[in-house]
Amino acid sequence: MVQNASEGSITSDSHSSPIQHRPRNYQKFPGAQYILPSDEEEKARLELQHRVLQRAISSRLIIPPLSLQSGDKVLDCGTGSGIWLTDLSKQVPSDVSLFGIDIEPRLFPTSELANMQFSVGTTTQLPTDWSNTFRLVNQRLLIAALSANEWPTVLSEIKRVLIPGGWVQLLEAKRWGTEKGELSVKHRKLLEELFASRNLLIDCSVQLPHLLKEAGFENVHVEEYKLPAGSWAGKDGEETRDNFINVFRGMKTPILNAGGFGYVDSEEGYEEWMKDMSKEWDVMEDTTVDICVFYAQKSA
Ligand SMILES: C[S@@+](CC[C@H](N)C(=O)[O-])C[C@H]1O[C@@H](n2cnc3c(N)ncnc32)[C@H](O)[C@@H]1O
């Protein structure tokens, strides 16, 4: 079956015809370019990803130097399954209010605590009545969602909804795979084409320090981590591998709908490639996934 409609508001600028495949569910928020699916499989992946990321950053849920007090409000933009907020709720006073926003509600938790609220909306245009509301805004892994034009808008929206002296924290992927592996190198080229076709900012991690300063944030900090990926790095390496190879599996529909960009011509071919790339990561001992954590403050 050829999948088109359920991938949402795609503006495909492919030069070739869509490649037939079994589709997954994708968001349909007007104007959104996000290329990962939203289904039970993705919810499970986001749980694994949360574990993998938290392990890399010493289990810190809050990165900037702040301690939340009664009455404070926290926002998680692009919250997904709300797993970061749910974890945070166990560490903060019960009268800290926790808000999650996402273009796609399908992964929201089915039961919420009294101090948690989830709403549908875009981080490019947060509700107008949220100005000067939050002490902390978290946003994690929107690399496959935001265009070069949208990033400055998003940072300015986040700044608007922070209280004076409030903090933003962002986590993004910077680089992945191995430069020595043929399949990884070819895959990087494919992703560059996919991201470019939607104007998504594949090097957002390189640009964010500058973008944060441009948006008027102060005290801009960056931390970088290299996560070993593949069985050569033991159980943790296998988890990192599985999470990120499954990210790439999730991009199958946008890639095949766009005709494969000259890199792949069938669903089976794409699946085989992901399987073989996973094996490549297992034996290439330089394979890592590099992430960056950014935090910055709105002036008091
Ligand atoms: C890779 S997932 C990460 C989810 C969550 N931040 C986490 O780290 O577990 C990205 C999420 O961003 C959401 N998203 C994509 N574009 C968005 C936008 N413009 N505004 C709000 N959420 C968006 C997606 O629906 C998805 O749930």
Poorly predicted regions:
1-14
Q: What proportion of the residues is helical, as a percent range? A: 25-40%
The total strand number stands at: 7
End-to-end gap:
55 Å
Can you give the mean pLDDT? 94
- CATH fold name: Rossmann fold
Let me know the CATH homologous superfamily.
Answer: Vaccinia Virus protein VP39
Q: Report strand %.
A: 15-25%
Q: N-to-C SSE series?
A: HEHEEEHEHHEHHHE
User: What is the SS-derived class?
Assistant: alpha/beta
Global geometry: globular
Counted up, domains total: 1
The biggest beta sheet is recorded as: 7 strands, mixed
Give the strand order of the largest sheet, numbering strands 1, 2, ... along the chain: 3-2-1-4-5-7-6
List ligands, each type once.
Answer: S-adenosylmethionine
Number of helices: 8
Protein name: S-adenosyl-L-methionine-dependent methyltransferase
Region (Disordered): 1-25
InterPro entries: Methyltransf_25, SAM-dependent_MTases_sf
Pfam families: Methyltransf_25
Descriptive notes:
The protein has 300 residues and is an alpha/beta fold. The chain has a single domain (5-297), classed as Rossmann fold. The chain contains 8 helices and 7 strands, in the order H-E-H-E-E-E-H-E-H-H-E-H-H-H-E. It has helices at residues 40-56, 83-89, 150-161, 182-197, 204-214, 234-250, 252-257, 267-283, and strands at residues 73-77, 97-102, 116-120, 134-140, 162-177, 218-228, 288-297. Strands 3-2-1-4-5-7-6 form a 7-stranded mixed sheet, sandwiched between helices. Helix 1 crosses helix 6 (234-250) and helix 6 (234-250) runs antiparallel to helix 8. The termini are far apart. S-adenosylmethionine is lined by residues 27, 32, 34, 36, 46, 50, 77-80, 83-84, 101-104, 122-124, 140-142, 145. InterPro entries: Methyltransf_25, SAM-dependent_MTases_sf. Residues 1-25 are annotated as: Disordered. Keywords: Methyltransferase, Transferase.
